[in-house]
Amino acid sequence: MKITANIDRQVNVRPHHGVAHRRLRYKWSIRFLPILFFQIYLNVTVLLFAYGPWPWPVKNATRLLQGTMTALSLYLCQGYYALSLALEKPFVSTWGVGNSFATIRQAERIPGNGVVARRTYPYRIESEGWDAYGNWSSIYPWIASDVSFPGTILVVLAIGYFFILSWRDTLRGFNPFAVAVFSKFTIMLYYFPANNQVLQTPESLIAFCGTCATWMLNRNRRLWLLS
Predict the structure, then answer these.
(1) What φ, ψ does residue 88 adopt, rounded to 5°?
(2) Contact 219, 172 (CB under 8 A)
(3) How crowded is residue 169: how many other Cβ atoms within 10 Å of its Cβ?
(4) Rounded mean pLDDT of 124-141?
(5) CB of 145 within 8 A of CB of 120?
(6) pLDDT in tens, 33-65
(7) Alpha helices in 87-138, H assignment, sequence order
(8) Which of 11, 24, 47, 71 is 20–30 Å from 5 (CA)?
């Protein structure tokens, strides 16, 4: 009886341990999938800008846009040229409201006359021939207008942290707001080479802040919607 019991325990434990191990590996691979995807995506856009076959700024765009790859390069990389121009400018604080058109417009209701807008990097590089409204400047000059370029590194790290945190909560399935927050961060990261997409309009700014606040308030609760 003892021998049989020992054999049964061995038979039951080993397959269970193997399945658990495979599940653990699967979970870790899924957890890192979004951050891996955006690491590759953003690095590709930078390399395309740095080593692509077209000099920046691109001239004669109508003729060059005959090829799909040229159009893709212009679409993904023009913001990095604006970033290179902004890096040459000194830091002038916009008091925490210069990171998007939405916050700038609201802040300028008080002083008026474009006081805030003229202090941002995208507007200050217009002296170099750039168009802050017509061209993309990437997200980095917008964030740097508030916190400087060294401070932008910390902000991007925070964005990455909350992005992967929302993905983890989405996998757990206890908080439906995590899905919405993860979607918002996905859009934000996708548009990193272009602009601060999620915060550019009042509607998207309010939706992002409201969804993030609701998600954080309910992070440690198993909501009845999914329980």
Answers:
(1) -85, -10
(2) no
(3) 20
(4) 93
(5) yes
(6) 888 888 898 888 888 888 876 666 666 655 555
(7) 101-107, 121-124
(8) 24
